[in-house]
Amino acid sequence: MDVHTQFDWQKGFLLDFSAKDGLSKGVHSTKRALSQMKNMYADAEAFDKAVAAGDPLVYEFYELGAPESAGDLAFGTSIVYPGKVGDEYFMTKGHFHTVLETAEVYYTFSGEGFMLMENPEGDVQLISMMPENVVYVPKRYAHRSINTGKVPLVSFFTFRGDAGHNYATIETKGYRKLVVEGSDGRPVMIDNPRWHEI
Amino acid sequence: MDVHTQFDWQKGFLLDFSAKDGLSKGVHSTKRALSQMKNMYADAEAFDKAVAAGDPLVYEFYELGAPESAGDLAFGTSIVYPGKVGDEYFMTKGHFHTVLETAEVYYTFSGEGFMLMENPEGDVQLISMMPENVVYVPKRYAHRSINTGKVPLVSFFTFRGDAGHNYATIETKGYRKLVVEGSDGRPVMIDNPRWHEI
After folding, report:
1. Tens digits of residue pLDDT in B84-141
2. How many domains does chain A have?
3. Is 0.90 surpassed by the pTM of this model?
4. Would you call B156 an interface residue with chain A, using a CB distance cutoff of 8 Å?
5. Residue A50 covered by a domain
6. Which residues 113-142 of chain A have a CB within 8 Å of chain B?
7. Domain presence at residue A39
């Protein structure tokens, strides 16, 4: 985790994020290689093979160290690279907010894909991510972005400073649904065969 | 005020905002003509003349009717058009948040200008707005965006759903500082001759 402490959250500051590739010249990103996503893709054999063949960078994003207060806002970009593990598209780990009742806003700069969301009661929502469109991720929904295209899926996110990230629930249970490439070459949402109640 | 109620803030939704002109095809903007900003520009004569000569559109922005809850987020674009009243650049009214301890994030798509901010104790911060850069507007600071360029200043903002807008303080007292075109043709920040404690 690269947390940055040089910002003045009390008096304001300026920070660059490219609308093309999503990267910042001013700060380092947090990178997630495929090997850091063990058990998150359905096809374990394809996963092991891809890790052995070079362990690709699946996504990166920014953690700026916003104050963990309800009045502050965390923000940054997320870049999910194109690729698949078996027939499952590259995606972020996804997480609930620790403060469950907090929303998140994503503005997509480029690329195409989906925001896959589910709440603790099992309601699932799948919303397209497309350039120059916002996805509103409501309170109480775990969220994961999935790149179903050929170029990086680049978006800009904002959420409450104290929201926090609960990755453990998703890492343990998985998501109820997966987005995979169907036999016609187009994305389709299916049940996750490895999902289980804890 | 155009408040939109067609969105599902509980289950999420998708909404377009052009990264070029900032406009949405899906919703109507709220428009501010110069005549709606009486007493906000220092040069009253130039103001009256510009209103009489056609009352230009100074800025527009989006109000989507986000739930007024601390867990939701309001978002949209702001478009400040280029122009001047006397030597003072076109700008937004500016406001404190009603819930003073809430921040705001602005990502600038295009144009150039400044975010002028002041807190109740009188501290003033001036941060550049430039394409592909975020301005972090901290808690407790009134904020106004000012277009010092030749093209629209287009940005995307996010803030807490319950933050609210307190325009009255600024409408009554004004800002402590103004940004005007200096004798060398470049923007300069000066004291507001009409500012007064209430």
Report:
1. 999 999 999 999 999 999 999 999 999 999 999 999 999 999 999 999 999 999 999 9
2. 1
3. yes
4. yes
5. yes
6. 115, 117, 123, 125, 127-128, 130-139, 141
7. yes
